[in-house]
């Protein structure tokens, strides 16, 4: 089974899991996320859930997970990222391949200025599953998720 999964991902087109960057004001969209994003970075990739992969000034690849409100270094540079993307379950985790495919099978299609947004954000107990996602305008997604993730006190978290 594991080899079938690797074979499946080897055949996928990465652009099927990314948001096209043209025609969008990414500086404005991601401004809500500084910090945890560094003050200066170059946008590289954005998956269909709005998670951004950016290049830090030193060339390192950082992943902004807007669902959890985290920004972590995932690779030393682009080449390292490409190597890591082909190993283990990184492509599925970073690009949300299985989740995006499930959304498409459920009939959830995105317009040019949308991503799959959360009904209940993961930072307060929502899950990464189709029933918790809905096509959402990018501006709403980034501002809302940043607002939720930057709260100092959350008084309700759903039970596990």
Secondary-structure map:
Blueprint: H1 2-11, H2 26-30, E1 42-46, E2 52-55, E3 61-65, E4 70-75, H3 78-85, H4 90-95, H5 97-105, E5 114-118, E6 133-137, H6 138-149
Antiparallel strand pairs: 1-2, 2-3, 3-4, 5-6
Strand/helix succession:
HHEEEEHHHEEH
> How many distinct helices?
6
Q: What is the topology, as strand order, of the major beta sheet?
A: 1-2-3-4
What portion of residues is helical? 25-40%
Walkthrough of the structure:
It is a single chain. With 160 residues, this protein is an alpha+beta fold. The protein has one domain. 31% of the residues lie in helices and 19% in strands. The chain has helices at residues 2-11, 26-30, 78-85, 90-95, 97-105, 138-149; strands at 42-46, 52-55, 61-65, 70-75, 114-118, 133-137. The model is unreliable at 1-9 (pLDDT under 50).
